[in-house]
Amino acid sequence: MPNITITSAAEVPAGAFTLPPGAQGAGPAAQASVYATLPAFCRVTAVARPSADSEIALEVWLPAANWNTRFQPVGNGLWGGSLNYQGLAAMLQRGYATASNDTGHRGPGASFAVGHPEKVVDFGYRAFHEMTLLAKGAIERFYERRPSLSLVDQCGGASRGALAEVNRHPDGFDIIAASGIDPETTRHSMGQLWVWQAAHKTRESVIPQEKLPLLHQAVLEACDGHDGIADGIIADPLSCKVDPGVLQCRAGDAADCLTAAQVETARTIYSPVTNPRTNDVLFGPLLPGSELGWASQAGPEPFGYGTDFFRYLVMKDPSWHPRTRPVDFDRDAALADAPQNLVVNVEPNVNGYFDRGGKLLIVGGWADVAIAPASNTNFYERVVGNAGARAERSVRLFMVPGMLHCPAAPNAANGHVVPTAEILEAWLRTGTPPESIVVSRRVNGAEERKMLVCRYPRVAQYIGPGDPKSPDNYACR
User: Is the pTM of this model over 0.70?
Assistant: First the structure.
């Protein structure tokens, strides 16, 4: 492998792995709870240098026994900058050969990008590709056979990396479950700044966090029953038409109403990111039903991911802040979409992957407040448009009502548990792509209900007359 230097290859006895100094998540508690019970494995460490300015840290972990014959790598959230040891441990425990990369730089944030265009390319797609090459080579040498299945079942960074991989290298994987996807970093960063600037246009524009439940309740009253049952969940936020003006205070300000400036803020957040000169829509908005999470993007400081993108890749100024120099969604949007930045996006064309028999499952949350839900729907619609007849057998999108950025862990206290692994297994076993799935909604540590979720753009409608918390009483319409 011309770009890769192996730095170590060693057998690690069961329970003997210790985190390297400075590793993310290091500490006695993590060591005891996560790594002390690991089975024996072969650990390969390497550095990839696909360009003169590249230095990508890689690791591959190979079960010494009881390998399930499959390869599944893990990824990184936000800007990466470290190896994902917890992810590696989780995959190893489940019998997978697995791998991780640090996205080509050290430390969180995007400061690495200034003056280092090759490192931006490494972050965009090369680090994931070099990791995949090393892992498959190591698997073949160690087991003297290729993996029976190469898959990704991840949310966030790993899913974006896998999509970029099969766009450029269709033979990289066989089946992918990609949740909370970010194929349009340049545009979703604009979306994060759009929300923050709307909320901080003036001092009066801020919607206090204690007023967000008021706005959320108004949305429920307007749209909750559209699916045939009023159950506190907006099933189809795209069809929800709500005017925050119904909450406008008659005079002054009060706890049970919104001021005129706060109404304007809400209307802007519900509106797509738009070029003020051309009126072109640049990215989708946060949607009705997501109000309780708005503080993450509209709080005192802007969301760090989008801020770092503009600070280091667009403005190229470490001191930049939207408070003193707001984003111009005409001029600055053009700079954001400059060719050197587009390498962090994913082209919505995976036809070569589909032609090989590749399968793609996308899962998004309608209440996502980290990345607007359009990140999922836009990409899916463009993939389908490019794929034509291939799409029917090769790709599915499921948008989960009420779900935030990523599916919850099966034992999470709160959130939506999406059985992506089981969905993939059924798709592989039957050869039939799913038309609907069942998702578990957890509240305060217990399962509150199971939900029928339909293939996008269909919506689950309550047909009754039975329990509204049972998926058996819903149909896709």
Answer: yes
Determine contact, residues 458/477, Cβ cutoff 8 Å.
Answer: yes
Helix ranges (DSSP H) in 314-399: 331-336, 351-355, 374-387, 391-394
Q: Is the bond leading into 457 cis (omega within 30 degrees of zero)?
A: yes
The proportion of the chain whose per-residue pLDDT surpasses 70, expressed as a percent, equals 98
Torsion over CA: 247, 248, 250, 255 (sign): positive
pLDDT in tens, 354-365: 999 999 999 999
42 to each of 90, 136, 440, how far by Cα in Å? 15, 14, 36
Q: Residue 306 and residue 312: Cα distance in Å, rounded?
A: 10
d(CA 267, CA 261): 10
pLDDT at 156: 80
Beta strands in 67-168 (DSSP E): 70-71, 98-101, 149-155
CB-based burial, 125-137: b 16+ in 10 Å, e otherwise: bbbbbbbbbbbbe
Three-class SS state of 402:
coil
- 434 φ/ψ sector (left φ>0, alpha ψ -120 to 50, else beta): beta
How far apart CA 393 and CA 358 sit, in angstroms, is 10
* Cis status, amide bond into 300, omega within 30 of 0: no
DSSP H or E run through 190: helix 185-199
Give me the pLDDT at residue 33, please: 75
The values of phi and psi at residue 399, to 5°, are -100, 120
Helices (H), 224-336: 260-269, 295-298, 304-308, 331-336
3-state class of 460 per DSSP? strand
Sign of the alpha-carbon dihedral angle for 110, 81, 159, 49: positive
Residue 470 identity = S
Per-residue tokens: 333:
């949007």
Q: How far is CA 70 from CA 13, 67, 380, 419, 421, in A?
A: 21, 7, 27, 19, 13
Positions in the chain short of pLDDT 50: none
